[in-house]
Predict the structure.
Amino acid sequence: MIAPLSTNLSTRGALSRSMAVALSCEGLWKVYEMGDEKVQAVKGISLAINQGEMVAVMGPSGCGKTTLLNILSGIDDPSAGQVMVAGKQLFGISDDERTEIRGREMGFIFQKFHLLDVMNAVENVEVPLLLLGYSPDDARQKASLALKKVGLADRFDHRPSELSGGQQQRVSIARALVHDPSVILCDEPTGNLDSTTSTQVMDLLAELNQAGSTIVIVTHDDEIAKRCSRVIRINDGSIIFEEE
Ligand SMILES: Nc1ncnc2c1ncn2[C@@H]1O[C@H](COP(=O)(O)OP(=O)(O)OP(=O)(O)O)[C@@H](O)[C@H]1O
Ligand SMILES: [Mg+2]
C-alpha cells in the first residue's frame, strides 16, 4: 500500500531535519602574506556541523581558531575552499548576497561583546532585525522577548557601559539569537568574564542549544568543552582530532 503523501512528507521532513547540516566547510585554507613571509593560518580544514549540535573548537594560542571562525562567519575570506550555511555557499557570490546570508542565517558572540555604546540594550538587540527589514514595532517586540529570555527584562534602557560584563554578554547573546539564525558562532564568549559569570553565560548557551539552536564555540576553557556534544581540536592550522 502506498502511504499517504502527507505521511511520506512528514517522515522525510523528520529525517532530513535530524540529519541536516547547518554549517560546513570544505578544503579551507588561509594564507596571510606579510611581505616575503607567508603565514598559513588554516591548512585544508573540512568539517560539518549538524543542526542542533553544540561544538567546541579548541587548540593552543595562534593555531588558527579565530581565523577559521572568521571564515566560517564570512567576516574574512579564505585563500581556498568553500563554506556552506543552510545549504547556501558563502563565497564566490556578491558581497550583498553574502551580507544577506550572514544577516539571516548567523548570529555572532565575541569575547569583547561588540555592542554599540550609543544604543541601549534593546536597541542593540534590534539591530539585526532592522537590517533584515523588520518594522520598528516588530523589531522592538522581538528584541524585548529576546532580552527577557536572557534574564534582562529590567535592563532594556541601560547602555552597555551601564551593564556588568556578564550582562553585556547576555545582551550580545540576545542579539545573536533574536532573528532565529541557523547557527550561532562564538569566539571565546566567556574570555572576558569571571568564572561564576562564565558559568551563567554557558548555562544560557546550553539552554539555547537544548531548545534547538546550533552553536559553535571557540574556547580555551575545558569546562565549556565538557558541555559540548563534540570537540574539534586544532593544531597549527589543521584538525588533529575530534572527540564526541
Ligand atoms: N591579519 C593577519 N595577518 C597576518 N597573520 C595573521 C593575521 N591574523 C592572524 N594571523 C596569524 O595567523 C595565526 C592564527 O591566528 P588566530 O588569531 O587564528 O589564532 P587563535 O587560534 O585564534 O589564537 P588565540 O587562542 O590566541 O586567540 C597566528 O600565527 C597569527 O599570528
Ligand atoms: Mg583567537
Summary: The helical segments are 5-19, 65-72, 95-105, 121-131, 136-149, 165-177, 195-210, 222-226. The domain at 21-243 is CATH 3.40.50.300 (Rossmann fold). The longest strand covers residues 21-34.
